[in-house]
Design goal:
Blueprint: H1 2-6, H2 9-32, H3 40-58, H4 61-85, H5 90-108, H6 129-147, H7 149-159, H8 161-166, H9 171-197, H10 209-219, H11 227-246, H12 253-257, H13 259-275
């Protein structure tokens, strides 16, 4: 049984983690400019349904990924309008975007239930393009955020919009860019889930991954480099739960499904206790004024 559980486990964990990693990177950028977007779950759902629908119609999974990214960006624009243009509460706005995404994806995806797609061809060792895309974005975003002037501008806005404004930066433009980048990556994560990981569409199929990403940003200490181990924690627990079910574990399947969420919650609680209320961008705790 141990061989069955462990054989190919690293690749399985990475494939499970890839959609969440994309969303986690997006939320990391959004929070870096001072916004907590609870609507990423909705953005992920519209990305999943748009990506799956376009792939089913065109037979081109990369075209589906582009459609997923565009759908995520479009829904993030609603969040940007609410929180930046209308100065609405960011948490209430995020929940509104989440519900909007859920409703739109359920309506748009009603005709896709039961359809099958080919998705991406498997590469060496069972890897897929979305796995490599997600992993490659970690160093690219990390190097950009910590090694370029633009990345420094984004981090400075996240720490203090007032100080950034005094330095000649227009904070709201940077915040909108951060929200949009988060939307693109959330949409990509949703598309990777439906096109590549599950190769199917089902209403509410993200199953809380977007909200998990919001919490795992804290575990990753708002650092793109640390998003990979944070996402791998979820992916490893999910891969193990599926293998335990396949191996005929005596633990009920419904309980095994909670394993990745329990593991994430445990690490999240430990991280929050160690941080003692600090560690994130200062603007996350301030009221934003343009």
């Amino acid at each position: 049984m141990a061989d069955t559980l462990l054989q190919g486990l690293p690749v399985s964990a990475l494939r499970s983690a890839a959609p969440l990693l994309l969303v986690l990177l997006g939320e990391c950028l959004t929070q870096r400019v001072g916004r907590i977007n609870l609507g990423v779950e909705g953005q992920m759902l519209v990305g999943a349904v748009a990506g799956y629908g376009v792939t089913a119609l065109s037979g081109q999974p990369w075209l589906g990924m582009a459609a997923g990214a565009a759908a995520g960006a479009l829904l993030s624009a609603v969040y940007a309008l609410l929180t930046v243009a209308a100065r609405a509460d960011q948490f209430a706005s995020g929940l509104a975007v989440l519900m909007l995404g859920y409703g739109v994806s359920a309506y748009a995806g009603s005709g896709l239930v039961g359809l099958r797609i080919e998705g991406f061809a498997l590469g060496a060792g069972g890897t897929t393009p979305t796995l490599w895309l997600a992993v490659a974005l970690v160093p690219l975003i990390g190097l950009w955020l910590y090694g370029t002037r633009t990345g420094l501008v984004w981090r400075s806005v996240g720490e203090s919009p007032a100080a950034a404004r005094a330095a000649g930066i227009t904070p709201w433009k940077v915040i909108v860019a951060g929200i949009t980048a988060g939307g693109v990556l959330s949409g990509l994560g949703g598309a990777a889930l439906s096109i590549d990981h599950t190769r199917t569409w089902a209403e509410g199929m993200t199953a809380g991954r977007g909200l998990i990403a919001v919490g795992l940003v804290i575990v990753a200490r708002w650092n793109p480099w640390l998003t990979l181990p944070a996402a791998l924690l979820f992916g490893l627990a999910e891969a193990l739960s599926l293998r335990l079910q396949a191996a005929g574990s005596a633990v009920p399947a419904h309980l095994l499904h909670t394993l990745p969420y329990l593991a994430s919650l445990a690490v999240f609680a430990v991280t929050c206790a160690r941080l003692k209320g600090g560690g994130g961008p200062e603007a996350l705790r301030a009221v934003f004024a343009r």
